[in-house]
C-alpha cells in the first residue's frame, strides 16, 4: 500500500511536512500546497522555501501547480526542473470560491473543452511526469464521465480523485459510486482521497475498493497526526488476529497495546507540535503568527479531544506562548487516538 499527504494551503508547509516526517510514519509522497504561476517573475520567498529540496530531506516531494493557462503551467514546470523535480501535480480539486471564480482548481472542471485543450498542450510540451488531483465535477457528479474520458486520453502519471463536486466543498458524503466508475473505466493508476479520519474508515475504503493500493490522507492527518501509524499498526495486528485461535487473549493484548500506544503517541504529538513551534519561531515568524499557526492546527486536532473544551478554549484565546503551552499540554491529556 502507498500513502500520500494531501496539500492544504497555508498548513502543510515545509515546516509541517518536515516535522511530520520526523515524528510519524513517513508518507510515500508529499505534495506542496498549490503554486500559482507567475510568468514574469520567479518564485516568492515563501514558495522557494516550500520547494527547496534541502527543506524536505528524505521525502518524495511533488510540487502542485494551479493554473488554467498552459503557457504559465509550462513556465512553472521549467522553474521547478531547476530544483531537480521530475514530477508535478495539477490541482483540479481546490473548491475555494476565490479560486473557482477565476476558472482554476475545481472551477476548471466546468470547462471540459478548455481543459482538454490545456492538457493536450502541456502533455505535448512537458518532459516531466504530470499527475492530477481532481474532483468529480463542479456542480453535478454526472460531469465526471466526460472528465474521465478526457483524462484517459493523456499519459497521466496518476489520478488522485476526491469524489465530491466543487459545490460540496467538504460537506455531504464522498460519492463512492463515481469512484467505482473510475476504478472500472480509468486507464490511469488511481489514488483515493476523501474522509479517511480513522483506521476504521480506511479499512472501509480498502474493503470497498480492493483494487486500489494508494490513498491520500489530508484532514484526517491534521486531526490526528498519528493516523498513518495507527493504520499500519492495525494492519499488523489484523494479520495476527486472523492467525490467533484464542480471540479472548487477542482482545486483551489489543487493549494493552492501545493503552501503551496512546501514551507514546501523545508524547510524540507533543514533540511534533513543539518542533513546529520552534521552527516557525526560528525562521522569524514571530510569536503572534506562530500562535496563529498552532491554533489553526488545534482547530483540526481539537475534533479528537471533545472532552477538552476548557483547554481548547484556552488555546483559542491564548495571547502568549506560555498560555498556549499550558493549554496544549492539558488538551493532549484528553486527546483520543483510537
Compute the CA-based radius of gyration: 21 Å
Please tell me the overall pLDDT: 94
Element order, helices and strands?
A: EHEHEEHEHHEHEHEHEHHHHHH
The proportion of strand residues reads: 5-15%
Unreliable sequence segments = none
Distinct helical segment count: 14
In which order are the strands of the major sheet placed?
3-2-1-9-8-7-6-5-4
Helix content: 40-55%
Number of strands: 9
Structure, described:
This protein has helices spanning 14-23, 45-51, 70-81, 97-100, 112-125, 144-151, 176-185, 199-208, 219-223, 227-243, 247-282, 287-301, 309-317, 321-333, and strands at residues 2-5, 29-31, 61-62, 64-65, 87-92, 129-135, 159-162, 190-193, 214-217. By secondary structure, the protein is an alpha/beta fold. Helix 1 packs antiparallel against helix 11 (247-282), helix 5 runs parallel beside helix 6 (144-151) and helix 13 (309-317) packs antiparallel against helix 14.
List the helices and strands and how they pair.
Elements: E1 2-5, H1 14-23, E2 29-31, H2 45-51, E3 61-62, E4 64-65, H3 70-81, E5 87-92, H4 97-100, H5 112-125, E6 129-135, H6 144-151, E7 159-162, H7 176-185, E8 190-193, H8 199-208, E9 214-217, H9 219-223, H10 227-243, H11 247-282, H12 287-301, H13 309-317, H14 321-333
Parallel strand pairs: 1-2, 1-9, 2-3, 4-5, 5-6, 6-7, 7-8, 8-9
